[in-house]
Design a protein that fits this description.
Number of domains of chain B: 1
CATH class of the largest domain in chain A: Alpha Beta
Structural class of chain A: alpha/beta
Strand content of chain B: 15-25%
Bound molecules: pyridoxal-5'-phosphate
Structural class of chain B: alpha+beta
CATH topology of the largest domain in chain A: Aspartate Aminotransferase, domain 2
Shape of chain B: globular
Helix content of chain A: 25-40%
Largest sheet of chain B: 3 strands, antiparallel
CATH class of chain B: Alpha Beta
Number of strands of chain B: 3
CATH architecture of the largest domain in chain A: 3-Layer(aba) Sandwich
Number of strands of chain A: 17
Order of helices and strands of chain B: HHEEEHHH
Strand order of the largest sheet of chain B: 1-2-3
Distance between the termini of chain B: 48 Å
Helix content of chain B: 40-55%
Radius of gyration of chain A: 22 Å
Distance between the termini of chain A: 47 Å
CATH architecture of chain B: Alpha-Beta Complex
Number of helices of chain B: 5
Oligomer: heterodimer
Radius of gyration of chain B: 15 Å
Number of domains of chain A: 2
Strand content of chain A: 15-25%
Largest sheet of chain A: 7 strands, mixed
CATH superfamily of the largest domain in chain A: Type I PLP-dependent aspartate aminotransferase-like (Major domain)
Chain lengths: ~400, ~160
């Protein structure tokens, strides 16, 4: 039914031609950062080579082209996530982390006070924890956590009690450690039924499945370009126009003002109010290209492709290693994405990753910036393999071969 | 896999599988020092019993990768029973071993050669320098030991 072909995506991705330790690279770290296709790199080069100019400033030809590229990226992103209010709801930030800091600092400080509760989950990335702790220090809010069950899901059995005094629910759409995909739409309904808003961390989900913020009926959405085949240095903060319009500015400076006098300033309207200073213009060009590239692939196709890879990997890891390799995450592909955390019995994740590197395999050892979750499962670290639209079953083959070697070596 | 065998020498794997001087010492009188590697979550606790200028006993607890665990075990064997001055010399030598690329270039341009024969089993860790991200794993125990000795000096 679809023309999606992972081998074609692979051919579009120059970084996959690298030879590492004499072998073709096996890139299984898309959860940390994904590899851009040529279209993204070329879009950025075009900006630098043909129309490098500042945005929103000058009248000359290349400057208006640069502005059109930058604002065009905003349009593309709005379309990609189906923002009901269009481009005017899309704020460019540095990354997901900055988007959450913007949320906590601007919206949080204006709308939350002592006694109010922000409800997170135990499987959040530090990006969606630390800004709330910082806000707690300033305002005396309470930060509460939805527990995670032994089978790696949000424990929503007492969600109504957890919702008491909650003004904001802030959860990840997909865990960057477990691969768990959370029931965001249900959580949004629950939050709204209790008079709270809901923010969603889309860093992991956005490159791996369809995103429709209108259908999910959520209020805030944050993600990073570099995890969706785009460049580093740019991220997105989305919220509904009526919320955005009421949010106080974040950083101050040029670009975000309507007027500055000797006795004060007034702010610009719309997303630019949150984009002080020269923005990441080349990166916006890259992000726009990444979004168009992903739309060309079809996000439903990408999701299906990665689900097949994940299912195959989970089955084969189980058959090959039985209990020697434990998957820290849901055992099958139900509500689960292509992020597979492994605990290899008797071999430290660092050592597993080191051995895998000799096979040209890129995986990530560590706590994945989710220390509360690691503590929950009494693990100092895991080895994480994660897939992208360019991944093939062959990548899993090399992973398994490398794991076999690591186990032999340390047995 | 030649590279890998250079890193994971048999001595290293042996110290990883059967670490020497594991355990605790009552503190006080022992000096207890903790070391962390926040990036990889490695942790170590070093206990030092110093009597009349001699490191009479050393014990270690903690967890981490094979390199950090083997390095701490090898370290404990290398320094136990030595005078504090000798221990400091071993630490200096080991630090040199882990930094051949940068700081051992003398003004004359002559690199300082660490005499591998003089450092016994510790030489097994020489391969770590080829894996820059692992140097901090190998150094964790040594930095913690240094810190412990500093506490001793200031006590
Ligand atoms: C779920 C999740 N949230 C937030 C982040 C932070 O993204 P960034 O480092 O791009 O700000 C990541 C990436 O590591 C992530 O996986």
């Amino acid at each position: 039914m679809s023309s999606f072909d992972a081998r074609r995506v692979r051919a579009d991705t120059p970084a996959l031609a690298r030879i590492i330790n004499g072998q073709r690279i096996t890139y299984l770290d898309s959860g940390a950062t994904s590899l851009p296709p040529r279209a993204v790199i070329e879009a950025m080069s075009r900006y630098y080579e043909l129309r490098h100019a500042n945005v929103h400033r000058s009248v000359f030809q290349t400057a208006s082209e640069a502005t059109a590229t930058y604002e065009g990226a905003r349009e593309s992103v709005a379309h990609f996530i189906n923002a009901p209010g269009g481009a005017g709801e899309v704020v460019f930030t540095k990354n997901t982390t900055e988007s959450f800091n913007l949320l906590a600092k601007s919206w949080g400080e204006a709308n939350l006070s002592e006694g109010d509760v922000v409800l997170l989950s135990e499987m959040e990335h530090h990006a969606n924890i630390v800004p709330w702790f910082m806000l707690r220090e300033r305002t005396g809010i309470e930060v509460r956590f939805i527990p995670v069950t032994d089978d790696f899901r949000l424990d929503l059995s007492s969600v109504d009690e957890l919702m008491e005094d909650v003004k904001l629910v802030s959860v990840t759409a997909m865990s960057n450690v477990l691969g768990t995909i959370n029931p965001v739409k249900e959580l949004a309904a629950t939050a709204h039924a209790h008079g709270a808003l809901i923010a969603v961390d889309g860093a992991q989900s956005v490159a791996h499945d369809v995103t429709d913020v209108a259908d999910l009926d959520i209020d805030f959405f944050a993600f990073s370009a570099h995890k969706m085949l785009g460049p580093t240095g740019i991220g997105v903060f989305w919220t509904r126009a009526e919320i955005l319009d009421a949010m106080p500015p974040f950083l101050g400076g040029g670009g975000m003002i309507a007027d500055v006098r000797l006795d004060g300033y007034s702010c610009a309207g719309g997303p630019t109010r949150f984009e002080a200073g020269t923005p990441p213009i080349a990166e916006a060009a890259g992000l726009g290209a990444a979004v168009r590239y992903l739309e060309g692939l079809g996000m439903a196709n990408v999701a299906e492709h990665e689900r097949a890879l994940t299912g195959d990997a989970l089955t084969r890891l189980g058959l090959e290693f039985e209990d020697r390799v434990r998957v820290i995450g849901p055992a099958d592909t139900t509500h689960r994405g292509g992020v597979i955390s492994l605990d290899v019995e008797g071999v430290h994740p660092h050592d597993v990753a080191q051995v895998l590197d000799q096979f040209g395999v890129c995986v990530r050892p560590g706590h994945h910036c989710a220390k509360p979750l690691m503590r929950r499962f009494s693990l100092p670290a895991t080895v994480r393999a994660s897939y992208g639209p360019y991944s093939l079953v062959r990548d899993t083959d090399v992973l398994i071969e490398g794991l076999r070697h690591a186990i032999e070596m340390f047995a | 896999m030649e590279n890998l065998d250079n890193l994971y020498r048999e001595i290293i794997l042996d110290h990883y599988r059967s670490p020497r001087n594991r355990g605790e010492l009552p503190s006080p009188p022992a000096i207890r020092t903790e070391g962390f590697n926040p990036l990889c979550g490695d942790e170590i606790v070093v206990y030092l019993d110093v009597e009349e200028g001699v490191l009479a006993n050393i014990k270690l607890t903690g967890h981490g990768c094979s390199i950090s665990q083997a390095s701490s075990s090898l370290m404990s064997s290398a320094v136990k029973g030595k005078t504090i001055e000798q221990v400091r010399d071993v630490i200096t030598t080991f630090k040199q071993l882990m930094t051949v690329h940068e700081s051992t270039l003398q003004p004359s341009g002559e690199p300082v050669k660490v005499d591998l024969r003089a450092i016994g089993e510790l030489a097994a860790l020489a391969g770590v320098v080829k894996f820059p991200v692992r140097i901090k794993c190998a150094m964790l125990a040594w930095n913690t030991l240094s810190q412990g000795l500093d506490e001793l000096g200031s006590a």
